[in-house]
Amino acid sequence: MIVADRKPLSEIQDMIKGRDNILIIGCKGCVTVCNVGGLKEVRILASSLRIAAKKEGYSLKVDEKVLERQCDPEYIEQVKSTIHDYDAVISMACGVGPQFLSEAYPDQKFFPAVNTTFFGGAVSHGIWEERCAGCGTCVIHYFDGMCPVARCSKSLLNGPCGGSNKGKCEISKDVNCIWDMIVKKKIEQDRLNDLLNFMPAKDWRTARDGGPRTSRREELIQ
Amino acid sequence: MEEAFEPQIIAFCCKYCAYAAADLAGSMRLNYPTNIKILQVPCTGRVDIIHLLRAIEDGADGVYVAGCLEGDCHFVCGNLKTRRKVEYVKKTLSELGIEPERVEMYNLSSAMGPRFAEIANEFGKRIKDLGPSPLRIKQAA
């Protein structure tokens, strides 16, 4: 899923400064699963903003809404009749949400309430880790299910580098060296020889280096 | 005005401990402030961040959650989970410039009637010392 973190309250308060009628729109997709922009979080943010307003002594109306997803026009359309009733709209979806909303309703002002961080999963309750870099050319199968593109600090395809120290990466003691893990697994499974195959330079054109990407599925296009 | 301040306090009490302790405190004829409004919950794990925030938003001067002693939760770890939620709310209030001490988590057993009264008195005094919630002050003005 796409993982995100909520922006600090002060940053969100700055965004909506001077506006007294706000709508917060959550998303039932990834941000609900990573507990940052679902129904619960929309309610918490709305209540926090109302508390801040009451404390400062000004009136702030904050409405709450959660869409099935904010990355599909059919759901974005569901707020068509009410979206212009507000001074501004805060989206708690990933970076896609405020953009889809802005494109659909160019006259309204949309603010992002979260910082979208990475593609990852929950390794335990409350802890998410990056697993995919969305590079566009998956190579996980060469590395026994571990992706060095997303999980090596240098995205090395022929590792480890000299910065690997006792299973940790040189950038931080909290970061595992994925190459250490790959080598250990290859040894365990008696397939260390796989690593003698030199991996040629990756074609980064399928990643962000090739510019913004589009995926076309001809059989689905109507 | 200062002397007339009677705090509005909400207490979320677990059915298995704090609520029973409140009963016991009553049976023991122990005194505790009358302005504490007790809400019974089946486990403090039922209390969510939004419940605590809404209480503050709607004008409570203080809110506390009273659950079982750590390790004694009837549902294993509801009290431990809610302790973290209380910490989250404290952090949120700090970010908003409101005293985090207005929200607290307590642990006690159903046999601790006197402790219930003590907590109620202690928290009541704390909120009295802090004064009315800044939300109420602005509303009154």
From TrEMBL, chain A:
Superkingdom of source: Bacteria
Pfam family, one: DUF5981
All residue ranges annotated as the Methylene-tetrahydrofolate reductase C-terminal-like domain in the record: 111-205
Listed InterPro entries: DUF5981
UniProt xrefs under PANTHER family: 5,10-METHYLENETETRAHYDROFOLATE REDUCTASE, METHYLENE-TETRAHYDROFOLATE REDUCTASE C-TERMINAL DOMAIN-CONTAINING PROTEIN
Name of the protein in question: Methylene-tetrahydrofolate reductase C-terminal-like domain-containing protein
Organism phylogeny: Bacteria, Pseudomonadati, Thermodesulfobacteriota, Desulfobacteria, Desulfobacterales
TrEMBL record, chain B:
GO molecular function: iron-sulfur cluster binding; metal ion binding; oxidoreductase activity
Keywords recorded for this protein, A-Z: Iron, Iron-sulfur, Metal-binding, Oxidoreductase
Sequence ranges assigned to domain F420-non-reducing hydrogenase iron-sulfur subunit D in this UniProt record: 9-131
InterPro entries noted in UniProt: MvhD/FlpD (IPR003813)
EC number annotated for this UniProt entry: 1.12.99.-
One protein family per Pfam: FlpD
Class of this enzyme: oxidoreductase
Heme is among the record's keywords: no
Full protein name: F420-non-reducing hydrogenase iron-sulfur subunit D
Primary gene name: mvhD
